Structures are given as C-alpha cells and as structure tokens.
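Entry:
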Amino acid sequence: MFNNNANTNEMKKTIFLMLTAFTLLCWTSSIKAQALIDLETGFVSTGYNDVRIPGDNGTFFSLKDDLKPNSKAFYRLRVNYTIKARHTLSLLYAPLETKSEGSLPNDIFFEGVVFPANTELTGTYKFNSYRLTYRYDIVQKPRFEFGLGFTAKIRDAKIALSSSGLTSEKTNVGFVPIINFRLLWKIDDHLGLLLDGDALAAPQGRAEDVLIALSYKVTNNLGIRAGYRILEGGADNDEVYNFALFHYASFGISYTFLNKRKSN
C-alpha cells in the first residue's frame, strides 16, 4: 500500500484535476444520464498488518499480533454518473484509520527512533483513499452485467508509533493506477449477487479492494446490499516494508437520480 513518496502539493493538484474532469464530463453531457449516490458502512477489523520502517534496517513488528487493534466502524461515500447506460464515472472517498496498543519484549527501531523494550506503545495506521474511476459495461443482459475500467487512486497514508515521550511516523502521499471491475448477476427482478472492486499487482507492490455482496432493489431508485469487503496490499522497498489485510462487514445503500436532458 506504500510506495515512493509524492508531495502534498502534487496530491492537491491531482485531486483538483480529477474533480474538474469529473465535473466537466457530467455537466457537458446532453443525453440521458443517471446520477447515483452510495453510502457504505459497517465494521472493519485487521487481518494482518506487518511493518518494518525503514524497509532495509528497521525492526519488524506487527500492528495485529504484537500490538492489539480494535474493530471499528467505517464509512465510504461514492458518487456515480452513468452516461448512455454503459459509461460510468465515479468519485470515491474511503477513509481508514486504526489504532493498536501494547508492548514488545524487545527494542523497536522505527523511522529513526528507538522505542525501548516493554514500553507501552500506541500504533496508528492511516490509509485514506480518493479515487476517480471510469468503467465501460462490456456486457449488459437482463440477468447479467459486466464492466471493466480504470481507477486513478490517491492515497494519503501514515504509520506512526508513540509512547510516553517518544513519537515517530512515516507518511506517504502518492498516485496509484488500478484496474476496476464490476460483475452483477441478477437472480431475479430484485435480488442480485455483486462482485465489485479495484485491484492491481506490480513489482513495486500490490493493492486489492474487492466487495462481494447480495444486493436488493427496493424500488427503481433505491437499492441496498450486505456483504464482505477485503482490502489488502503493500510494498517492500528500502523506505518501507508494509503488508496489511483488512476485513469489512459491509452494508450499503444507494439512491439513483434519473436525469433526462435533451440536446438544444
């Protein structure tokens, strides 16, 4: 999930360009289109979270096994805009921050600071994600839909350790290109099975964010779903070694606005 550093100004510039592109594409569309707002919430827990910073000579420890994390509530907010039924643009805000507490029987060298053995520690793991996605629905049948696309992802990440009198952190802001996919099997007119996510693996690291859920169409505008989401990934380089896995018990609700505009 970590990679080479990028500065905050570059992140702000990229987010601004993403938002501008999304807004222009939405407002300049003069054909039938649909806007959708989606809220996802539930609980997230840590599967594993292994850390070594610096990646070449830091102390290896776990924010899951050595320090103990707690499950916590989460939320995600997405806005979609679908043009001509097949072209979908979306913006996603997906914050994540967990804390772990405990102590280790050995010293920890972390980002230039040595934390003595048997010291009570607090570990903070932050991985906020901002994503702009374009997806094209390749298959659209009465009972089956499948689409592929591209996601431009900005990550705002931090791993920190603190104790009484000592604090150290590693922050990282950067851009990651990811493949997007969506598959929906409509079991009947209301119930469906959804597989949706972003994923990519490269020599620099990997990232997967995938949801499998049962969806239910309450009305033509309102839909709900419940399922399981997995967030996993990491990187191994001289600056950072970090691989983490998170489990999500997920509930979502979406509302679709039908917008009919005619060309002049």
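The longest strand covers residues 121-141.
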